[in-house]
Design goal:
Layout (H helix, E strand, L loop, with lengths): L8 H7 L1 E11 L2 E11 L2 E5 L7 H16 L9 E3 L2 E3 L7 H5 L7 E5 L7 H15 L4 E5 L6 H11 L4 E5 L5 H10 L7 E3 L1 H4 L6 H4 L5 E4 L7 H11 L3 E3 L6 H13 L30 E3 L7 H6 L4 H17 L1
Parallel strand pairs: 5-6, 6-7, 7-8, 8-9, 9-10, 10-11
Antiparallel strand pairs: 1-2, 2-3, 4-12
Length: 328
Amino acid sequence: MDDDARPSLADLRSTARVVSLPLVTRFRGVDRREALLLEGPQGWTEFSPFLEYDDPESAVWLAAAIDFGWRVQPTALRTSVPVNATVPAVAASEVAGVLARFDGCRTAKVKVAERGQTLADDIARVRAVRAAMGPEGRVRLDANGGWNVDEAEHAVHALAEFDLEYLEQPCASVAELAELRERIADWDIPIAADESVRKASDPLAVARAGAADLLVVKAQPLGGIRRTLALVADARLPAVVSSALDTSIGLSMGAALAAALPELPYDCGLGTASLLAADVTRAPLRPDGGALPVGRIVPDAALLERHAASTERRDWWLARLERCYRLL
């Protein structure tokens, strides 16, 4: 980041608020979501890499937070963005309750390949989602790289009957994605790359290898809106904008990214505030008629106090902030 555009560490610390928000249902192995919020001259922004991420990876998230809070953002081309429902790896009996939290969403992303579960669990969950969404709804799957090529091919054959929109990150490596894409070419199920973009030293490798039909992009992990727009342009592939279980402030960054993309062919994975049991604003950025408005979010002071992290966790995040700042 240009030093002229970077606030001092003291500036960041002066507005830093660390929150801990409960989830409605367990997601990514956690029951609470922690985030560090900052206020810059352009508005509030968020720094919330997952706890297990190391400092070099987390520093990219900090660059995105600073960019969103301290720099004027690219022009929005739309005032709202369509979003999908997100179904965690819950039992099939819980699917209807999860979907009910996503008002008007015509697309559902379903987590599969969860550690400790079986393909039979995935089939039951996806069947329940398809039944709830009806024949006109769109169903996409996210395996988070949980299958090898043979397992993914077997799963595709078992799940194809549910008319899948696409399969997100079925395998971990670019080489595996390329091989799977070749194996299932006749099935007309596109492959989307997520971790192979946002966690890669070369995020364009998956596009050059012809290993994916579309990209899943997230503003925080990719260093901000400008960097993500440039990546999508260089990849020359359709993009889906998604989130990382952010607060509504982080989701507003994702919505700004989606609003700035020249084309937005897919519903975005930005409706995840519906998975939070609490948020930092009285008007959480949840789907309304299947869409989110584009605009800045200002947190509510009382909610910041109510959901403030413990002193120990606040100190942990401030120390992480300082370490990551030194790496920018």
